UniProtKB/TrEMBL annotation:
GO molecular-function terms, A-Z: ATP binding; protein histidine kinase activity
Protein name as it appears in the record: histidine kinase
UniProt xrefs under SMART domains: HWE_HK
Organism: Paracoccus salipaludis
Domain of life: Bacteria
Transmembrane residue ranges: none
Residues forming coiled coils: none
Known EC number: 2.7.13.3
Domain Signal transduction histidine kinase HWE region: 25-108
Amino acid sequence: MRARSMAGPEPQTQTQSDAAAHLGELSRRLGNSYAMLRSIIRRSAESATSVESFAWHLEGRLDVIGRIMLAAMRGPDVSFDLCRLIETELSDQHAGGGGDTWSLNGPPVTMNSAGAEVLGLLFYELVTNSIEHGILGAEDVGELQVTWRVEQGADGELLHLDWIERGAPATSAREGFGSMVLEGMLRYQLDAEATREFGPEGVRISLSVPMRSLVQDDAGPALA
């Protein structure tokens, strides 16, 4: 009679184990990104003023998430640079006259894909709104200054970012997709706070984001 083997399955090699862990992490990230895509499509439809507006803005928002999803697929340790996120939106939308119209100043800040998706969407909305209604769409008028810093808070480090447009009057825009990102996604997914100030000299949008929300394991599904 042949003896029954009591041995268990062969142990995985380190390479196999790493690959399995990477696939599991990638699956989780893609699931979260898919949930965000569904939210973007639904809320874009709710805030659109026309079919053309819906199609135009939806394409731009999906491009933001698509770029980040593709980058995240390279490996579990991929991170995203804050300055690069802002530069990408300004350059892709041909905002103003480049360095003559806008300036970016702050220390290096990196984040995970969940943080990059939310902040990338926010910067897309801010650039788009400025081109349509603010100084980035005006000729030889005003400037955009984006500055950020990291400070120690009571519960850990905080990223403080100021988006300041000067040189053209600003009024409060209607509540649309950008407002949902500012008041919903930022708070729900990143535990962040945001304020908006409009006046005769321009607009100022200030963010305060816990750094732990940007560097910890990717957050849960997007706000539905």
